[in-house]
Write a structure and sequence with these properties.
Helix content is 42%, strand content 18%. The chain is built from 5 helices and 4 strands, in the order βαββαβααα. Helix 1 crosses helix 2. It is globular. The two termini are 28 Å apart.
């Protein structure tokens, strides 16, 4: 069955291999624009993106025609190739073998956008490891299914 309307918001977090700070500020916007193009070319809508030195956050409304893992694989493979082909980091650029994808309700889209856009200030107070642990704790809270 064809889905005529969808509201599938996903907050992705990609991490550089071994959490190395490979994304330099001078290349941040170029990398963000490239990832934006990849997402748009896959019939998804990017709301916001921010590339930190060792990780990238982005919020998308994804097409029902593509699942999170497929979209993440396309973004990872394409952006790795782009970064390496254009020598946008020292040495070989690589993402971790896995990423995180968190569902976001329509009511929280604006709050998540603000959070992602505020990454530079946020990481003056909290490391990426602390941030990531907080995400996992929040999303792993046990919710009892309705019987």
């Amino acid at each position: 069955m064809k889905v005529q309307y969808n509201n599938l918001y996903v907050h992705f977090v990609f991490t550089t291999y071994n959490r190395l700070p490979l994304i330099e500020e001078k290349n941040r916007i170029r990398i963000e624009k490239y990832i934006t193009g990849i997402i748009n070319n896959n019939n998804c809508r990017l709301y916001v993106i921010y590339a930190n030195p060792e990780h990238v956050h982005f919020l998308v409304s994804r097409s029902p025609d593509i699942d999170e893992e497929t979209l993440a694989t396309i973004v990872a493979n394409s952006s790795e190739r782009f970064i390496n082909d254009n020598k946008l980091c020292t040495g070989n650029f690589q993402w971790q073998d896995s990423c995180s994808a968190f569902s976001v309700s329509k009511n929280d889209v604006e709050k998540v956008c603000e959070y992602i856009l505020n990454q530079k200030e946020h990481h003056k107070k909290q490391t990426f490891a602390e941030e990531y642990d907080a995400f996992i704790q929040f999303y792993e809270k046990t919710i009892r299914p309705i019987k």
